[in-house]
Amino acid sequence: MWHSYNPPLSIKGKKVDADAYADEVGPSAGRPLNLRQIEVFRAIMMSGSISGAGRMLHVSQPAVSRVLALTESRLGYRLFERVKSRLSPTAEARRLYAEVEQVYGGIQRVNDLAASLGQSGAGMLKIVASASFGQRLIPMALERFRGRNADARVDYRSVTFDELAAYFLSGQADIGISMQPPDHPNLTSIRLAQVPVVCVMPKSHPLATHEVVRPEDFASAAWIGYPRDTPLGRALQPFFGDGPRCAAAVEVHSPVTACSFVQQGLGPALVDAWCVTPDQAAHMVLRPIEPQACVEIWATHSNLSAPPLLARRFLAAVKKTLEGVAQPGLGGAPDED
């Protein structure tokens, strides 16, 4: 992002460097900071040192030092104090950094758009999703999407539910797929489907002989559960009622992790059917549960502007995938809302 240019000035017929001139006249000139100075300031704040900022920006340490000195000269106050081998930000720097982080997402969006326009308008689709849907749903939908948008580039990130809103607000997401809709006034969510929760277990587990798994089957601690405030933990509260007879021996925060633990023989787990890949289903036993429990699939986008064309096309691919694919071991497709 080192794109700013300060042309040489002419003072009484003599050319001088603009940065050097700024150092001489000091902050009274009231010159605003340019993007290069803001970027250097941000890099120093993030790395904690001049050398670290230089590595982040792929420039030399003296170059970073010169820009910092000019920045402090223009502002009229120090941004950092040297403490041992690191730079400690001043109170003014901390306030300035909070504002910089808010606008930096906008700068990144401008750069992303500029880059995509140079690639025959192919564009970049930014997707965020719960890890559970990154196992099957997202790859299958992307295969369908890229069949008609072969030139599109995709940035996919697996995120937790707590991180979801921040990715949209910082411009790092166009569309999100999750088990719950984030509660934010600038975001709009659409319920796409409900999918069943199933019990997965090692093939040698005693519950493998059951046709249906019920709450009373979790009478020992040898099972894998979730904290109550996670999406799966909330979805399973009606199933367990007042709670399982015996607390889980292991708690995880993702059904993807739960499946991995099941494969290692740590016990049965309750997961959403979409997180089980065909390969995993071949090495585990899947059973329906009674009473039934379901998780929802939500699509989220910003409501500050219309979703990009690529995001709308990907959402259509997700809907088609949900309509046409049976869940492993259950013989039925999820119900679309």
Provide an overview of this structure:
The chain is built from 12 helices and 14 strands. With 337 residues, it is of the alpha+beta class. It has 3 domains: 9-113, Arc Repressor Mutant, subunit A; 119-192 and 296-336, Periplasmic binding protein-like II (D-Maltodextrin-Binding Protein, domain 2, 3-Layer(aba) Sandwich), CATH 3.40.190.10; 194-293, 3-Layer(aba) Sandwich (D-Maltodextrin-Binding Protein, domain 2). Strands 5, 6, 7, 8, 11, 12, 13 and 14 form an 8-stranded mixed sheet that branches. The radius of gyration is 27 Å and the shape is elongated.
Features:
single chain, 337 residues, alpha+beta, Arc Repressor Mutant, subunit A, D-Maltodextrin-Binding Protein, domain 2, 3 domains, eight-stranded mixed sheet, two-stranded antiparallel sheet, 12 helices, 14 strands, 21% strand, elongated, disordered N terminus, disordered C terminus
Secondary structure topology:
Elements: E1 9-11, E2 14-16, H1 18-25, H2 35-47, H3 50-57, H4 61-75, E3 80-83, E4 86-89, H5 91-117, E5 124-129, H6 137-148, E6 153-158, H7 161-169, E7 175-178, E8 187-202, E9 224-225, H8 231-235, H9 237-240, E10 250-251, H10 255-263, E11 269-272, H11 278-281, E12 284-288, E13 294-302, H12 309-324, E14 335-336
Parallel strand pairs: 5-6, 5-7, 9-10
Antiparallel strand pairs: 1-2, 3-4, 7-13, 8-11, 8-12, 8-13, 8-14
Describe the global form: elongated
Number of strands: 14
Q: Biggest β-sheet: count, sense, barrel?
A: 8 strands, mixed
Strand content bin: 15-25%
CATH topology of the largest domain: D-Maltodextrin-Binding Protein, domain 2
How many domain regions?
Answer: 3
CATH C-level of the largest domain: Alpha Beta
Number of helices: 12
> In terms of structural class, how would the helical and strand content be classed?
alpha+beta
Q: What ranges have pLDDT less than 50 throughout 5 or more consecutive residues?
A: 1-29, 328-337
Helix content: 25-40%
Mean pLDDT: 82
Distance between the termini: 45 Å
Pattern of helices and strands: EEHHHHEEHEHEHEEEHHEHEHEEHE
